[in-house]
Each structure stands twice: as structure tokens, then as C-alpha cells.
Design goal:
Structural class: alpha+beta
Number of strands: 10
Distance between the termini: 40 Å
CATH class: Alpha Beta
Radius of gyration: 19 Å
Largest sheet: 2 strands, antiparallel
CATH superfamily: Aminoglycoside phosphotransferase (APH), C-terminal lobe
Helix content: 40-55%
Length: about 240
């Protein structure tokens, strides 16, 4: 966190306790909790990706990825995420009991889908859940703080970028915003041709995972399912180009 903050990324200060640790351990009802005391920053979670917020998010993410790659060189990781595959949600769902024929088709496709990452592209420590729900912005859509690094993972940084692009797409349903996001991102951290070719298949993997989560939570209504199916079809078209 300090590494990012030193490089201009808006990260809240984590306060240390009396023994110099940022992690406080508390025992409540025979359970052990790890607690962080964080600087309060005024802001809100935006519901939509406005043009201004797109620019802010893309710039800060590119800065984080450059820092994550730099940090990984100083602190090498022993392993990394190497395959995009849904393994958390869909296997918990009784697919045969679902009322929608289209949903009974979507989820098995998601369960079967996997995409192996190219091992030679840039790797670093990534947020992996970077979206409007995990940033605080002011009334002018200026980012004030980036939060919730609990999914931090060492992997190809394009994975983190693609996960964010999925969020932009599912919220705004506007493919042109993805091009704008990438253009702004590349103003700080250019992407290789190989990285660009990986974006669509990684987005599709994320798409299937979140379709599984939404279904598991009971929130996949007909309107959302129509959107998920339309986006899936468009992503599959990209993969066959």
C-alpha cells in the first residue's frame, strides 16, 4: 500500500498500532478478527461509469499496474494465476432445477470455459476487483481513494485490466467505453499486441464467473439474463475474428 501511495496512487493511510503493526488482532466470541484502522476519506461509490470517471479509473489503474510490476521485481512471487476458469460459484448451483432454458445453457458453458494465460507477458501484483464499488469519488467524479485490496493477486496485469473492462461493460452496456478506457490506460502503460489479444477471452471468463455469482445469489432476472447472453455472444464473436 505504501509502495502505491509513494507513486501517487490515492490510497488511504493505514495507521499503525502501539507496537508498529498495521494489523490489529481482536478476539470476539472465540473468533479471531484482523482489523485495519484506515484514514477516513470523504467520497461515494458511483453507480455508473461516466466519461470523467472512465479517465480517472484508467489512469490510476495503469499507474497501479506499473507499480505492481515494479514491486514484483523487488519482491518475486513463487506462483501466479495462470488460467482463467470459473471454479467458485457455478458448481454450487443445481443447474437442472433452473427454470430458464437459456440460463441452463449459459452456466454449463461458463463451467467448461477456461483460458490459459501467456506466461511471457508482464506480471505484477494486481487489485483484481477494481471497479466503481471499490473506489471513492467526489461530486466531479474525481477519484479520492482506492479501497479493498483483499483480492490482490500476482498475475498478468492484463487480467486486472480485463476484469475492470467487464465491469464497465456490464454496468454501462457500451462497447465504445472499452475503447476509450484502453486508450487512456495506454497513455500511461502501453499494451503489447499479445496483451490486447487476451482482453476479450479474459473478459469472457469474468463474465461467466459473475453470471454464476448472480445466479447463486438469486438475482439473475430475465432482463439481466438477456444482457448476459447478448454480451456473451458478442465476446464469442471477438474470439472467432
Amino acid at each position: 500500500m505504501d509502495f502505491l501511495k509513494e507513486r501517487g496512487v490515492p490510497i488511504p493511510i493505514l495507521y499503525k498500532n502501539s507496537i508498529g503493526s498495521q494489523i490489529n488482532t481482536v478476539n470476539i466470541d472465540s473468533k479471531t478478527w484482523h482489523v485495519l484502522l484506515m484514514e477516513f476519506i470523504d467520497g461515494e461509490h458511483k453507480e455508473a461509469y461516466t466519461s470523467e470517471l472512465i479517465g480517472q479509473l484508467a489512469s490510476e489503474q495503469a499507474k497501479m499496474h506499473k507499480a505492481g510490476i515494479e514491486f514484483a521485481k523487488l519482491n518475486p512471487a513463487s506462483s501466479s494465476l495462470h488460467t482463467i476458469k470459473e471454479h467458485e460459484f457455478i458448481h454450487l448451483i443445481d443447474i437442472d432445477s433452473l427454470g430458464s432454458e437459456h440460463l441452463r445453457g449459459l452456466l454449463p458453458r461458463g463451467k467448461k470455459y477456461q483460458y490459459k494465460l501467456n506466461g511471457s507477458i508482464p506480471k505484477g501484483y494486481c487489485h483484481l476487483d477494481y471497479d466503481t464499488g471499490n473506489v471513492l469519488a467526489d461530486s466531479n467524479d474525481q477519484i479520492k481513494a482506492i479501497l479493498d485490496f483483499d483480492d490482490l493477486t500476482y498475475t498478468s496485469v492484463v487480467v486486472c485490466l480485463a476484469f475492470t473492462l467487464w465491469s464497465v461493460l456490464i454496468v454501462n452496456d457500451d462497447w465504445k467505453l472499452l475503447d476509450k478506457y484502453i486508450d487512456i490506460y495506454e497513455g500511461i502503460r502501453p499494451l503489447s499486441k499479445q496483451e490486447k489479444s487476451m482482453i476479450a477471452p479474459i473478459i469472457l471468463g469474468r463474465h461467466y464467473a459473475l453470471a454464476g455469482l448472480l445466479t447463486l445469489e438469486g438475482d439473475m432476472d430475465n432482463n439481466k439474463l438477456t444482457t448476459y447472453l447478448r454480451i456473451e455472444e458478442r465476446l464469442q464473436e471477438f474470439l472467432t475474428l
